[in-house]
Amino acid sequence: MTTDTELKITGVMARPVMVPMARPLYTASGAVEQAALILVDVETNQGFTGRSYLFAFTPHIQQSILALLDGMGAMIQGDAASPYEVERKLRAKHLLLGVHNVVLFAISGIDMAVWDAYAKSVELPLVRALGGSVKQVAAYNSNGLGILPIADLPQEAEQLLAEGFSAMKLRLGREKAADDLAAVRAVKQVAGDDVTLMCDFNQGLSVSEAILRCRMLDDEGGLLWIEEPVAAEDYPGIAKISQSTHTPISIGENFMGIEQMKDALRHQCCDFVMPDVQRISGVSGWMRAAALADAQRIEMSSHLFPEYSSHLLAVTPTCHWLEYVDWAVPVLQEPLQIESGYAQIPDRPGSGIDWNESAVEKYLV
């Protein structure tokens, strides 16, 4: 460790891994059977390493993000590890190309890791470095209940609840509306009135079909929200659905930065928002999104990345629910713990992420 008093970035390393999923996820938009992750390490002159990971969907997208991370790492080498400044510089460097999709993913991965390094350097958990306190965050189990045979749903619902949760999410979007209704009823029979149940169509419907099915679910009752019934960018269509249904509508995992979140709120198309830290521009972008949600008095949940999202929701004024998935667990030394339905933010410096290097070597692409 050097005696330099300013924390500076000395390098960025990224590694692709393919991690088997304990429960493959089958949705109306497709199947995910392995988690194509990219592990990001930001090295500093003081010996603190910031860590984050990205979800790349497929191996060929992994390669695109890796190339971007390599180029971005060269851009910020030698810069102060000041997260907002790093994020601002990277966004400016890619303005003409457009800060969307994989470009934004790469920026977010670096931003998260720089925040992790900074929090470690001041010897604080990330939530404390952001001005909050270590606390519990309500979490729902999002690891299963995909587009499975309806007869298989009750057993999987029981298993998900047995993992320490009192809330879970069911994927809908089967070919027939009646089958979606049967799926909800099958899960509710196991869940009972004390379990919180959300559902997600994963953008699988047309606007007219979504109105039909959302009204059907209204009549059934008992759902906390209906998520992404149609294409994520169709804000006028989502607004029409929201105006036609009583069950709250939740969107936001596909917001590419706060600009799209602002546009969605302008259309008054949803009751809840749930940004994704990879798409919203990392920790820095999340903080802007949280301020916008607070100004609009709209409840805000998270999408994926529970290790980071738990810290971020704890400083979100309109904090709602943490989406819990275990996709990165096999490569983590100390996975996020869930107790009685609440995520336990680790009370140690940074995000709490450290790699299980033997597992990383095993799953390295």
Question: How are the strands of the biggest sheet laid out side by side?
Answer: 5-6-7-8-9-10
Q: What's the total helix number?
A: 12
CATH H level, superfamily name of the largest domain: Enolase-like C-terminal domain
Distance between the termini: 31 Å
List how many beta strands DSSP finds: 13
Mean pLDDT: 96
β-strand amount: 15-25%
Shape: globular
Total of domains: 2
Q: Poorly predicted ranges (pLDDT <50, ≥5 residues)? A: none
CATH class annotation of the largest domain: Alpha Beta
Structural account:
The chain contains twelve helices and 13 strands. The chain is α/β, with parallel strands linked by helices and 365 residues long. It has two domains: 9-124, Enolase-like, N-terminal domain (Enolase-like, domain 1); 128-352, Enolase-like C-terminal domain (TIM Barrel). The chain has a six-stranded parallel sheet with strand order 5-6-7-8-9-10. Strand 6, helix 7 and strand 7 form a beta-alpha-beta unit. The radius of gyration is 20 Å and the shape is globular.
Concise summary:
The chain is of the alpha/beta class. It has helices at 59-76, 83-93, 101-121, 126-129, 153-162, 177-191, 207-220, 235-244, 258-266, 282-296, 306-313, 357-363, and strands spanning 9-27, 30-44, 49-55, 136-141, 167-171, 196-200, 223-227, 249-251, 272-273, 299-300, 322-324, 337-339, 342-344.
SSE blueprint and pairings:
Elements: E1 9-27, E2 30-44, E3 49-55, H1 59-76, H2 83-93, H3 101-121, H4 126-129, E4 136-141, H5 153-162, E5 167-171, H6 177-191, E6 196-200, H7 207-220, E7 223-227, H8 235-244, E8 249-251, H9 258-266, E9 272-273, H10 282-296, E10 299-300, H11 306-313, E11 322-324, E12 337-339, E13 342-344, H12 357-363
Parallel strand pairs: 4-11, 5-6, 6-7, 7-8, 8-9, 9-10
Antiparallel strand pairs: 1-2, 2-3, 4-13, 12-13
Helix pairs in contact: 1-3, 2-3, 3-10, 5-6, 6-7, 7-8, 9-10
